[in-house]
């Protein structure tokens, strides 16, 4: 029996060494696994932190998106209101342009009438000047005839009658012409005042 003991002891030592090697390898593997696990945990934490940041960013983006949607809806409603206001303004502008064209045409017609009245007034003024010249000429001739009457006493009665008739006729003609000219001037002045009022109303309306 004492001779058989050393053989198993060698096997046990060998097995012990193998088991120690395996244990060492296992410990090394466990250490590696632990390191890997720690690394993975850190990576998981980083991922979770990144996920939280992304979720916060998504929340901010959703809020911004909602705000932009509300803003777009508000802008659309404003655009619609502005388009309606623009349509109303265009209709009003077209109506005003039609009124302005009508008033401009009326003003042009009245201007033509005023020019015609001015021409008639100029003609009347010229005629009045001519009659005044005729009157002065007749008056000068009358004075000359008065001088002749003083020298021709024999023909005084006949000449005085003729001169009286001539003076009466000239006075009546001049009085009639002066009256007609005065009436024409009053009519023209009234029309000019009325036209001036219309032009002032048109200028006020255009302003």
From TrEMBL:
Keywords: Coiled coil
A cellular component annotation (GO) from this entry: centriole
Keyword match Disulfide bond: no
Entry coiled-coil feature ranges: 9-169
SUPFAM superfamilies linked to this entry: Tropomyosin
Source species, domain of life: Eukaryota
InterPro entries, alphabetized: CNTLN
GO BP, sorted A to Z: centriole-centriole cohesion
Protein name, entry field: CNTLN protein
Organism name: Thalassarche chlororhynchos
Gene behind this protein: Cntln_1
